[in-house]
Amino acid sequence: MGGTQRVRASLATATEAGILSIEQQSEVLRIERRTRLSDGRIVEFTRSVYRGDRYEFVTELNEV
Predict the structure, then answer these.
(1) Maximum distance among all Cα pairs of the chain, rounded to whole angstroms
(2) How many CA atoms lie within 13 Å of 61's alpha carbon, on the beta-carbon side?
């Protein structure tokens, strides 16, 4: 199994701002994820919107 996750900066729509309790056009992060089985079939697809002021992205890098 494998997948792809994309993270991008954007501005909140009016609906998103209401749900997230932020001003319209505030900075948000949009995350889209697709997870596939070894035969290529997609088993997970998500789209999420996070407040830009409350999100922390952490990546651990290991020696290969």
Answers:
(1) 45
(2) 0
Tokens of 31: 């995350």
Q: From CA 9, how far away is CA 43, in angstroms rounded?
A: 25
- pLDDT by residue (tens digit) across 9-53? 999 999 999 999 999 999 999 999 999 999 999 999 999 999 999
Instruction: List phi, psi (to 5°) of 18.
Output: -65, -45
The whole-model pTM stands at: 0.78
Q: What is the DSSP letter of 58?
A: -
Round the CA-based radius of gyration of the chain to a whole number and report it: 15
